[in-house]
Specification:
This protein is of the alpha+beta class and about 350 residues long. It has two domains: about 290 residues, Beta Polymerase, domain 2; about 60 residues, Methane Monooxygenase Hydroxylase, Chain G, domain 1 (Up-down Bundle), CATH 1.20.58. Helix content is about 55%, strand content about 20%. The termini are far apart.
Length: about 350
C-alpha cells in the first residue's frame, strides 16, 4: 500500500462468523468482498481526497456520500444510496488542555486543499476546559463498513475490541458494528452533560451570592447557552436517525439488531431532554439575574432618594432663614439661630428614622 494512501488508514480488518480473520490491504478489499461470507471494517482518520477516491473505488461508494465525507461539515443524518447507507454523527468530548485557537498539526483545524476545517470549540467554565466537536461518517454496505473520523473524536479501537469480544453479536454483521459506534458516540455525551450541569449550578450560586458582577454572570450564561446550542445541533437530529434505523426495512439491519438501536434512541432522548431543560434553566437564570440587577438598582435609588430628602429639608430651612429680608419672624430673636439648627437636625433625624423603618436605609 502506498504510504500517501496508508497514512489515513487506522485499521482494515475482515470478519466472518463473528470472528476477526485478518488485516487486509486497501488494494485487496475488492477481492475480499468477492468471498461468500464475512465483511470488511475499515477505519479512516481525516483522509485526503486521494484516499477517499481509492476507498470509493474499492467499495463502490456513491459520489455524493464521498463529497459529504470529504467536506466534513455535515448535520447528523442518514441517507440511503441504493443498497448502502451513509450515516453522519457529531462527536463531542471535554478537552481539559487545549486552548481555544490552538491548531495541532494534522488536526481538522489544519488547512486541507485550500480550505479550513476547524473544530468547533466553546469554552465552558474554567479557562482550560472546553468542549470540542468533531464528525464521524459511516458507510454501510452488505459486506463492508467504513468509518471516517474528522476533528475531535476518540479512537474506535475500544469499539472494535468490544465487538470482537462478543462474537454472538458480531455475527449480526455491519448493523451491530454501526450500533456499537453510535452507542459509543452517544455515551460520551453524558460526561459533557454532567460538566455543563455543574457549571450551571455554579452560575446559579453566583447569581444569588451577589459577589460577582452582573456582567460576568451574564457572560457566563451566554457562553453556556452557546454551548447548549452546539450540543443541541449534535443530538437533536440523532432522534430521527435512531428512529429510522430501529424501523429500517433493510437487510443491512437485522431485526435482532434493531432492538439495540432503540436503546441508543432512549439515550438520545434523555440527552436531548437534559439539553432542553438546561436551556430553559439558563433562560430563567438570565431573567433572574436581570431581575436581581433591577432590585439592586432600586435599592440604590431608594438610598439616593432618602439621602436627597434628608439633605433637602435642612437646605429648605437654611434657605428660608438665610434670606435678607428686614421684616421676618424670629429674625432678631436670640434663640432663632439655635432653633434653626434644632429644626434642621431634628427633621433630618426624623427622616432618617422613617426611611430606616421603611427599609429604604
Amino acid at each position: 500500500m502506498a504510504t500517501a494512501v496508508a497514512m489515513g488508514i487506522v485499521n482494515c480488518v475482515t470478519y466472518a462468523d463473528g470472528a476477526r480473520i485478518r488485516e487486509v490491504e486497501l488494494e485487496d478489499v475488492s477481492e475480499v468482498l468477492k468471498e461468500p461470507t464475512g465483511f470488511v471494517w475499515i477505519g479512516l482518520l481525516e483522509p485526503d481526497e486521494e484516499l477517499l477516491r481509492k476507498v470509493q473505488e474499492e467499495f463502490g461508494l456513491h459520489d455524493l456520500a464521498i463529497e459529504d465525507a470529504h467536506s466534513a461539515h455535515q448535520r447528523p443524518k442518514i441517507e440511503a444510496y441504493g443498497d448502502s447507507l451513509f450515516v453522519v454523527l457529531r462527536t463531542a468530548q471535554i478537552d481539559e488542555n487545549a486552548a481555544v485557537g490552538d491548531t495541532a498539526p494534522g488536526s481538522a483545524s489544519a488547512e486541507v486543499d485550500g480550505r479550513t476545517q476547524a473544530d468547533e470549540k466553546v469554552q465552558v467554565g474554567e479557562e482550560t476546559q472546553e468542549v470540542v466537536f468533531g464528525e464521524t461518517h459511516v458507510f454501510i454496505g452488505e459486506r463492508y463498513i467504513v468509518t471516517v473520523r474528522h476533528g475531535a473524536s476518540l479512537p474506535y479501537a475500544e469499539v472494535r475490541k468490544r465487538c470482537e469480544a462478543s462474537p454472538q453479536h458480531l455475527r449480526q454483521g455491519v448493523g451491530f458494528v454501526l450500533y456499537s459506534i453510535m452507542d459509543f458516540v452517544v455515551d460520551h455525551y453524558f460526561p459533557i452533560i454532567d460538566v455543563l450541569e455543574e457549571h450551571l449550578q455554579k452560575i446559579e450560586e453566583e447569581i444569588f451570592s451577589g459577589g460577582v458582577r452582573e456582567k460576568e454572570v451574564a457572560h457566563g450564561i451566554y457562553r453556556l447557552k452557546s454551548q447548549m446550542l452546539y450540543l443541541k445541533r449534535a443530538v437533536s437530529p440523532l432522534i430521527e436517525v435512531c428512529n429510522r434505523l430501529a424501523r429500517y426495512d433493510n437487510k443491512l439491519i437485522l431485526p435482532e439488531t434493531r432492538l439495540y438501536f432503540r436503546d441508543v434512541y432512549d439515550h438520545v432522548i434523555r440527552i436531548n431532554e437534559s439539553v432542553d431543560n438546561m436551556r430553559e434553566l439558563l433562560t430563567s437564570a438570565l431573567e433572574t439575574n436581570l431581575a436581581l440587577v433591577s432590585v439592586r438598582q432600586n435599592e440604590v435609588m431608594k438610598k439616593l432618594a432618602a439621602g436627597a430628602a434628608m439633605i433637602a429639608v435642612p437646605t429648605l430651612i437654611a434657605g428660608i432663614y438665610g434670606m435678607n429680608f428686614q421684616h421676618m419672624p424670629e429674625l432678631h430673636w436670640a434663640l432663632g439661630y439655635p432653633l434653626a439648627w434644632l429644626l434642621m437636625i431634628g427633621s433630618s433625624g426624623l427622616l432618617y428614622y422613617l426611611f430606616h423603618r421603611s427599609g429604604w436605609l
